[in-house]
Amino acid sequence: DQQQYSVWYKPSGVLSQGSKWSDHCTVARWAEQHLLPERPAFIVHRLDKAANGLILLAHSKKMANQLSQLFENRQITKQYRARVFGEFPTQRVNITESIDNKPAISHVERLKFDSETQTSVVRVDIETGRKHQIRKHLAGYGYPIMGDRLFGNKQLMESDNEMDLQLSSTFLSFVCPIDKMSKEFFIPKQFELN
């Protein structure tokens, strides 16, 4: 917690922010209720409900605007890990398929392949933040994320019917708008996909 902003771990199944009808089961509401001293929480970026990992919250409108500008100007580094079906290539893959007629760029690198389960763990660095970008890019490239009921392969889904989406936001890095120091945040080890 940096007083003006904080980074939280969002479990899968929890919303980043609510709707106009309700927001009582969201990361933002939970943060507002548990921060000391109490202060508001503004969502600066979102994670899919089914995904887990790091999420950045601002505690003033001014800070929300400053952090949002960093995202808009691609000055925040975001890394993700995903467990996908299949043996992902060993070389780094750059996926540049547009999403909703907007540029979308994902860089994917295999970290591990499990020959027994025929699954790979990959690291994904994104330059853009389109809705469902990683899920769409990996599925479109032929390596759907395990547990992805939206974009996953229907035949493969039978084997992971009860599994949570295997997608985690694992790392955030940016220059703090307040002290101009570089900040890095890592997902706690117990939540990492291995």
Could you tell me the number of beta strands?
9
Any idea what the shape is? globular
The CATH topology label of the largest domain is Pseudouridine synthase
Number of domains: 2
Query: Which structural class matches the secondary elements?
Result: alpha+beta
Give the arrangement of secondary structure elements:
Elements: E1 5-10, H1 27-34, E2 42-43, E3 52-58, H2 61-72, E4 77-85, E5 93-95, E6 106-114, E7 119-126, H3 133-140, H4 154-157, E8 167-175, E9 182-186
Explain what this protein looks like in three dimensions.
The protein is an alpha+beta fold. It folds into two domains: 5-76, Pseudouridine synthase I, catalytic domain, N-terminal subdomain (Alpha-Beta Plaits); 77-167, Pseudouridine synthase. 16% of the residues lie in helices and 30% in strands. The protein has four helices and nine strands; from the N terminus they run βαββαββββααββ. It has helices at residues 27-34, 61-72, 133-140, 154-157; strands spanning 5-10, 42-43, 52-58, 77-85, 93-95, 106-114, 119-126, 167-175, 182-186. Strands 1, 2, 3, 4, 5, 6, 7, 8 and 9 form a nine-stranded mixed beta sheet that branches.
